[in-house]
Amino acid sequence: MEKKKGRSIQPKKAPRKKTNKQEPLGLTLKKAVFGIFILINIVIVAALIAPHIIKKEKKEVKISVKTPAKKEVKEMSPPKLVLPKLPTFEIFPKEEISKTSLPEIKQFKGLPKVAIIIDDIGYDKAVAEKLLNMGANITFSVFPYSPFGKSIAIEAQNRGYEVILHLPMEPVEYPTVDPGEGALFTSMSPNQLITKLEDDLNSIPNIKGVNNHMGSKLTTNSTQLYQIFSVLKKRNLFFIDSKTSSESICQPSARLLKIPFAQRDIFLDHNQEKSAVLNQINNLITISTKKGYAVGIGHPHETTYHAILSMITEIRNKVELVEASKIVAVP
Length: 331
Fold this sequence. Notes:
Layout: E1 3-4, E2 7-8, H1 25-76, E3 113-121, H2 125-134, E4 139-142, H3 149-158, E5 162-169, H4 190-203, E6 209-214, H5 222-234, E7 238-241, H6 250-257, E8 261-263, E9 266-267, H7 274-291, E10 293-298, H8 302-318, E11 320-321
Parallel strand pairs: 3-4, 3-10, 3-11, 4-5, 5-6, 6-7, 7-8, 9-10
Antiparallel strand pairs: 1-2
Helix pairs in contact: 4-5, 5-6, 7-8
């Protein structure tokens, strides 16, 4: 160690590292208060915003849940059952039409012959099945283009029943009353009439003949009847006049064109009370005993079915139930 002028010279010491000095208490308190103030403001702002956020979330959740629920219900709902629209059955004459005298068509032996035709087949499958199961020898007259007409016709034929076409024709009440799909109208040209008729005849397989549905206007028009009967003749089909007009000229037209023919004697169920139907069946039997045969026309009503069923034994004891083709002949 060097000495200088009698004093010893000390070596220089290394500088010490700076250390954080402790802040004053007042400053620390100010910072704490400021921090608490900021925290309180954050809480207040959050409290104001939170309900809107929650409401929005709830709304979003509600929508997201509701939408699939609607779809689920729609998919699970059963399809609506669309029932076929029933046509107007027959327009019954206000008063019974007096019959033109027909010559004896056939010389029948044994019991009088009765043909019961059930019109308007093709819309009520349940009643048709009951009629088929009844076992009575009735004739089924089927609407063209009816929803069940073709299948009922085939089933009836397979069970040995005779099937004819129930041909819609223009009534005097048209257009207030619509005769239905496939109808023939007096306003049709010859080509239109024949084309429509051919289509109608082809709509039901293996028919043996035709009877008219309504037709109180068209059956009085000779020109169009000749056209219709000409087509029926080519197809070897007979015609039964439902006799909806006292001015019908179906009989002379059939005679002129040599078409096997018959006409209705009685409507069985223009009054659908069971007692009235039973009375008409008895009238039909009475007519058959006077002239040897008779034609009755009924419709696919439950009342008609039950009336025939309740009298079937009595009917069989008094008359022979036959197909319509066993009654007809060229006038």
